[in-house]
Task: structure prediction
Amino acid sequence: MRAPQSFETERLILKPTSEEDAPFLLALLNSPKWLKYIGDRQVKSVEGAREYIKNKMLPQLQKLGFSNYTVIRKSDKVKLGICGLYDRAGLAGIDIGFAFLPEHEQQGYAFEAAQEIKRAGIEVFGINQMSAITTKDNIASQKLLEKLGFKFTKMVQLPQDEEELLLYEFTNKN
Result:
């Protein structure tokens, strides 16, 4: 397998999440919107975040060459959020996802990062069909997915999850 790639946009660096990102990930996983829209991952320490990265993110990166990316602002190297492509149980195809710390929302970073990850998915990894899931009440996520060209297709339920989620899908026609 080739070495994992990082990606760049005008304002951002997207690098594969590594164990060094554990303090940042701890904050993100316990932010109010993460807990509300994604769920409590029971990560309560930097060591727990390191284990989460090691057990949940790195295996897919090693297996498929893509996974979770830490989004870093170029101008000051501040870690803003995450964006990635996920091989998620219960979903056909590859899922795109994103989450940002509250102080970095509403500045276009999520769209910029997700647009680059979508492009990389298609052009670098050959993924022509992507999906995305979100909760019924996460209107901001729904709007972002639509702006990225995803279309709502149906309601779904993931294994071991009682909540119905909105499934969005994108197919590259080129």
Q: What stands out?
A: The beta strands are 7-8, 12-16, 68-73, 79-86, 94-100, 129-134, 151-156, 165-171.
